[in-house]
Amino acid sequence: MPLFAVERDLSQLPPERFRSELKGLVAACARLKSAGKQVRYISSAVFPAEARGLCLFGAEQPQWIQEANEAAGLPYSRIFAMLDLTPSGVRRELSCGRRPPESETGRESGAAGRPVRVSEEIARWSDEGRQLLQVLGGWLETAGAIHDTAEVLEHERTALAESVRRLEEEARRLGEDVDGLRVQRDDLQEALQTIASQMTRTADEILYRFGARSAPGDLAPR
């Protein structure tokens, strides 16, 4: 059966209250199982310093885990798949965080009054769940945060590079505009000087024709 972890924000839910409300979650899983939906609650871990919790489930479909949590009224942040990486050959007592009380899960009373152990598979699932939760800790959240930060930095780097490219292009265009304006200014000054010289010669010729001035260029009176 595939394994899934449910991440919870426990900032508004004290650990003891969370533990008591897990009974409703177990009951919700039992109701779903009786309805033909294979979902099984395995174990929970709480990280008080971070106000977070992780719950381990086995289920054929992740939406059944969502239904169980919603039926129990327990808030959660996300549901994600997990892999069991416990090496084969590791004894159960080495990978188990703690042994459950035998009065709850270790033994049941048979018809003849003899103690009957729960199935080895259920015990293995429980042990693997606790071991996985201990190993996971805050690693998954930290890895996700690092990935998100890396993506944000990459986007910022790309945006900054694009801004620098646009500024360089704008500076190049401004330089070309300044050079063009300088050429136009020089041409305009030359044209103005030519026009002023032509106007001076024309005025001299007009005055000469009307006898108000000697011939252009002739400064001595005759």
Give a brief outline of the structure.
With 222 residues, this protein is of the alpha+beta class. It is built from 6 helices and 6 strands, in the order E-H-E-E-H-E-H-H-E-E-H-H. Strand 5 and strand 6 form a beta hairpin.
Radius of gyration: 44 Å
Helix content: 55-70%
End-to-end C-alpha gap: 127 Å
Question: What's the CATH architecture of the domain at 3-136?
Answer: 2-Layer Sandwich
What is the N-to-C succession of helices and strands? EHEEHEHHEEHH
Q: Which key phrases capture this entry?
A:
222 residues; alpha+beta; Alpha-Beta Plaits; four-stranded antiparallel beta sheet; two-stranded antiparallel sheet; 58% helix; 16% strand; rod-shaped
Protein architecture, described:
This protein has helices spanning 15-34, 62-72, 92-95, 102-106, 120-136, 139-209; strands at 3-9, 39-47, 52-59, 78-82, 107-109, 115-117. Helices cover 58% and strands 16% of the residues. The chain has 222 residues and is α+β, with helices and mostly antiparallel strands. The strands form two sheets. A four-stranded antiparallel beta sheet has the order 2-3-1-4, sandwiched between helices. It has a two-stranded antiparallel sheet with strand order 5-6. Helix 1 packs across helix 2.
